[in-house]
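Budget justification aside, the reviewers requested a transparent look at the raw inputs and outputs of the sequence design task funded under Objective 1. We therefore reproduce one unedited record. The lines immediately below are the structure tokens for a 258-residue chain.
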């Protein structure tokens, strides 16, 4: 809602999109609140209903379903507090430098704004908002990072860590972008070039080559580099592809079943 108000005030052509995941009672009626706010600020409105597929990690599945209907140009209202939480979550999950860089500002224009400031803006403008109770459920790791981990870290550091973590994410993102640009000059199918490259760049070249929907894990990348160095004739990736070397060229194919 804060993003809707700010984007409209900035003179942007705005479409507010409400996505109903159907995961809690009354979620469909929340679209009316968004539509009312959109009319107030002269914005367009679009409502969408999605089906969240069954499986583990409900948050990730709901996010994927949501972004599928939002489209690649949609902006979100994530704040600096969300950025700090994302950075810590990626660290807990073993994310590399790219993960520690967090979210990118071009999709999330409020990363320089604190969460409490968005609340204060909505209160000052008398905007009706919806409080999602799932944001407080301890079953979700992000919620525990928000309510337990960050407060403990701040108590130990005796300071507000969100600006520090968000600033560090910016630094790491810039470093990751530079390394990605350098790694793009390496042909990941050229075993000789891959083996001769600095390992930090070789890993990135392999990761980009193997990435379909999600990047491969570090163990897979290291196995591929071993093939490039001639330490193994071939290997399998974590998603079942087969990597082989022939005449100093690497290739990937789907491993045979059975």
């Amino acid at each position: 809602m804060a993003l809707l108000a700010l984007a409209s005030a900035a003179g942007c052509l705005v479409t507010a999109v409400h996505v109903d995941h159907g995961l809690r009672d009354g979620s469909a009626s929340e679209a009316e609140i968004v539509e009312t706010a959109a009319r107030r600020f002269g914005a367009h409105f679009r409502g969408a209903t999605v089906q969240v597929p069954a499986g583990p990690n409900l948050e990730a599945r709901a996010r994927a379903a949501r972004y599928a209907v939002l489209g690649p140009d949609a902006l979100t209202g994530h704040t600096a507090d969300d950025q700090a939480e994302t950075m810590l979550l990626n660290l807990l999950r073993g994310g590399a430098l790219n993960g520690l860089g967090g979210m990118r500002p071009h999709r999330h224009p409020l990363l320089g704004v604190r969460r409490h400031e968005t609340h204060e803006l909505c209160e000052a403008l008398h905007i009706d908002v919806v409080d999602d109770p799932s944001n407080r459920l301890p079953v979700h790791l992000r919620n525990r990072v928000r309510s337990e981990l960050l407060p403990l870290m701040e108590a130990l550091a005796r300071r507000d860590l969100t600006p520090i973590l968000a600033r560090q994410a910016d630094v790491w993102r810039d470093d990751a972008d530079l390394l990605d640009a350098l790694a793009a000059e390496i042909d990941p199918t050229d075993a000789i070039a891959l083996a001769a490259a600095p390992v930090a760049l070789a890993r990135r070249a392999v990761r980009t080559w193997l990435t379909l929907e999600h990047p491969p894990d570090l163990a897979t990348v290291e196995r591929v580099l071993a093939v490039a160095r001639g330490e193994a004739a071939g290997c399998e990736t974590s998603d079942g592809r087969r990597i082989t070397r022939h005449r100093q060229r690497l290739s990937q194919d789907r491993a045979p079943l059975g």
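Residues 65 and 251 are 32 Å apart (CA to CA). Residues 184-254 form one domain. Computational costs for records of this kind are itemized in the attached budget.
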